[in-house]
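Task 17 of the worksheet. Students: predict the tertiary structure of the chain below and write it out as structure tokens. Keep your answer in the requested format; marks are given for formatting as well as content.
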Amino acid sequence: MAAAALLSVARQPSRTALFAFTRSLGTAPTPPRHSFDKINAQHISALKQIVGGDANCFTDATSLAAYNADWTGRYRGSSQLALRPPTPRAVADALKYCTQHGLAVVPQGGNTGLVGGGVPVYDEVVISTAALNAVESVDADSGCVVAGAGVVLQALDEELAKHNLMVPLDLGAKGSCHIGGNVSTNAGGLRYLRYGSLHGSVLGLEVALADGTLLDLLSTCRKDNTGYDLKQLFIGAEGTLGIVTRVALQAAPRPSSVQAAWIGIQTFEDVRSALRLARRHLGETLSAFEFVDRASLDVVLEGQYASMRLHDPLPDNPTPFHALVEVSGSNEAHDTEKLEHFLEAASEEGIAVDGTVASGGRQLAELWAIREGISEALARRGAPVYKYDVSIPLSCWYDIVTDMRARLSEAGYNDSSGVRVVGYGHMGDANMHLNISSLEVDDRIGDLIEPWVYEWVSSRGGSISAEHGLGQMKASAIGYSKHPEAVRLMAQIKDVLDPSGTLNPYKVLPSP
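Model answer:
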């Protein structure tokens, strides 16, 4: 393939950012309700006073519907009370009251999760951080930003853009997810390859504890080597140890040049070679390496609605595998040269069969629309969608897709029966999104998937949750990724910080 073919122009029009309804099926049977008290009129009256009156206290069925269900429609609770405290102190005071009166609590941010971590299992009181939505300060010199937990990720990024900075995190749900929820779930996202985990980006936190303590860990220092780094306990704890109320985050310089290439590849071994080549040639400019298999691309292309109208970036070469490679930096000429050298090397070494390049603006958005449109296209295809977010060594990364297809096919579930197995994800950090799409509910499919999928991942030293967390869906499956000693230590930490088990019960850890 000539280098000129790799440098052709991307063709597909833009699409809507709407998210469709899906059922994201998963693990565990619901654990029995713990011996928490039930909400009564006296509780409601006291909590209403704590959070500032009726405007921040919701008891009617219409308002509660949004707090009781997640966006997938899979997880649904029956809370009788949702609170929206206007200040961190009010969050802590409400939490203290609930602990003292034996009321379970579920913290909730933008409610965009996929494992049921932010919605009630039973009748827990919902404490929403949505009112903590102020960007308090931006230090343009250090790049540190301090924000309330309820600030929407996209709004935070837009504020940082005024200072030529950016959030080192990018998610498909950025228009509705909250930074506090991102921290609480240790969200990964599209540019983890470049900027790493929130464990490294978060400088400090303020956290409301179960006893009403407002724990001030809100350091804005990049280096602070005094004692235990307690903030790390709350990053990824999914609100089971405390409720994050404020975040200090290390922002990244905003790139002035962003470009991407979409390349078609014949074998998965060549995909691995492409990643190694990208690391070698693109170095510090490499900001994303996203993988899309043919089945994932076909779902997007076949699910054509008036709002989508996406087209194959490489219609003349329908290869089995694709990679979206993004570079970003401060010098467009330099970045373009590096990307061209990478593409030329990929062509000369027989790794890439074909490719297309987008240099910012609409063309770049259109390439990303395909990658980010897979989840929506699967949802539009029909319910249910069985979704698994796993980390697997790259040496066997795609085997989980081929093995799942073979397992289901042997039982009579394949394309002809309306069942599709697709694989896509953040290959740069070994994060596979395995999705099984069916056109109708069939319990036998679920039984064929689980616990087999967790056993498969565990046997290869992977993680059953790469970036989505455990929530309700995988709490009972934590043993596939963590040794019993580690799980026991986690339970001991939980007992120290939340001895009554008030905070987000039935999540993350197996129920006793």
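Marker's comment: The mean pLDDT is 91. DSSP finds 18 helices and 20 strands in the chain.
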